[in-house]
Amino acid sequence: MVEEHFDVLTNSGEKTEVIWTIANVYVFPWSKVHQDGDYHRAVNVWIFVESTQELVLQRRSDDKDSWPGRWDISSAGHISAGDPSLISAQRELEEELGIKLPKDAFEKLFVFLQECVLNDGKFINNEFNDVYLVTILHPIPLEAFTLQKEEVSAVKYIHYEEYRNLLSKKDPAYVPYDLNGYGKLFHIIRQRCQVNTEARSLSLQKQLQRYSPVTLEANLTELSEADQKALGLILKAAKVIDDIFYEQLWHSNPALRDWLKEHANASELDTLKWKYFLINKSPWSSLDENEPYLSTADSAAKFLPEATKPIDGWKGIEYRAAFPLTKPPGGNFYPPDMDKMEFTSWLSSLTEEQKRAATGFFSVIKRRSEANLDASLSDHLSDSNSDLYSSPYSEIYQPFLTKASELLHKAGDLVTSQSLKKLLHSKAEAFLSNDYYESDIAWMDLDSKLDITIGPYETYEDEMFGYKASFEAFIGIRDDKATADLKLFGDNLKLLEDNLPLDSVYKSKDVSAAPIRVIQLIYNSGDVNGPQTVAFNLPNDEKIVKERGTSMVMLKNVQEAKFEHILKPIAEIIISKEQRGFVDFDSFFTHTICHECCHGIGPHSITLPDGRTSSVRKELQDVYSAVEEAKADIVGLWALKFLITKGLLSKSMEESMYVSFLAGCFRSIRFGLTEAHGKGQALQFNWLYEKGAFVFHKDSTFSVDFTKIEDAVESLSREILTIQGRGDKNAATLLLNKYCTITGPLKTALEKLESVKVPVDISPTFPLAKTLLN
User: Which portions of this protein are annotated as coiled-coil regions (predicted)?
Assistant: First the structure.
């Protein structure tokens, strides 16, 4: 027999080799691993039967070198060197029990470290186990199992509580497990079996109450009949964008959405689940540090007729489409069991062109072994030295993008504006070619009453590296007067860049005027889950930013709704009575403009100390979004003061802009410290508070110290801009770790807002768009 080979780990679970390739990985045969007690990886797969609350156990073969003849996990096995965890789980289940299930049946619960010594010290097991749960609705007939005789002698069902009691008593018929660690499995199952419907409904109601319902509309009378007809087609394309985004969040997310919608009227609890899902677009709550408000037990039931050998009278397996308790940092852009080391090692083996594709905005990273699983379980790595490969969005989302492309082409044929016509046709072509350059240029040149933003843009959902763009759509009617009023800001970007509190070596040389468009939003879709976007500054393509700069879109009716429903109530509770009157919409709106402008200035393309050219985004990776949001915010505040000093803005707004900014800090921090804007805002608040620019009073209100705020703002602006200019991820991480915390005064304020139930954000409905779509 050919011995297996394993990756050898440290006692903290890290691979011992920096270079992770099949050819060079540091491996030992399994016999030596257990002789020496080397740390290695394995998978544990538990099958749980929802209707009977039972677990499937296997009886280990009498010939096994550890725990022979004892009852054990449904299926388990080592992860061979270089193999992905999920594929190993699928393979072990099929090999040992003859059950073939797709990846969405496997829910990774946790990693369990098992350390034990057996056979008089001859067998030392130091094993990091990836623990998976497969939830099926009804028992599989025992005769449907195909047992691997070398490994398994029998299977049986046992109630999870009975099994836990046997383990606690150390029953000699069962493989022992430490319930201090492995007890988490039983706790999770118990939570799902003992549901308190009333308590869950109450919890979801409280979560929903944090969003204030608002209606957003606009006047279409200035649109021609042809433009209105085109608008209907564009709205349909935007609905397709939503479908793509659901899939980008997690591979089983669309199935969960469809299941929740289908059962939304089954009970009050099911209605609440559906309403909250529509806000978050996933089972993780944006305002609760992405804590799950649903579990796999709430998920879609799927039927699989050929998962086992056929049995007369039995139709097949029904299972729950699984999702992990912890939101995957890489979303569905990367394999769920891929870590940074594996990706970085793979990247080092690629050509420069391949690297650009792998780290680019518009590709998904996948596994060859996953693609080959159905064809072969034994030679799934034979066609490549690496299991990873990149695939363009145009292929991954082809059915969706083909449909959206057709709709945009039809709309482009109808519209009267030549710039909009060019945008719609070029974007339709980009969906199919995966080349977005021309369509992004067309978007920057857009001069139309009907304002459209549609495509893959922001990278917030890629929390692993910040490389991958999520699809989104914003459709609105341009507010011509408000747009004309804001020309001042776009025209002075070069002046702001030249005077940034930053060493000249890091300043951008090619900064051009940034067009600013103000719109009344009538529909959005895609990457707008949780807190609503008030403005955006695009594109993010460094090549275009260097050549042309960026353009900004302000969603005025969204900002008005947030000011009325959120910022004003916050000010009434948190801002000191003496300064409360300084909080006004003009200051809030103007700072938002400067925030978006400041995304376009400061370091973007940079030169590293070793002479290599790179970008801030590429170097800061997963911390980029939070740092960039903090930069835009604080430098935006610095820019307002600078423009006032230059006489370009009225000095009368100086105090109001600082106090309105203070009130806005609490608005954004309430989004949570896992969200880029909330994280960036916590950094700013705590820095300014530390410098004495924000003052906490005995009555638990805050005020601005106008004698200290200017210097504090400039010092933080310099700190963040310099970190970006150097591409210093370590410094960025240290800064975030130090200041992105809920300090005592901040906690007091947030609890005060929670106690009086001030909304955290808005939940918009779009009746006009609904009418047009119908």
Answer: none
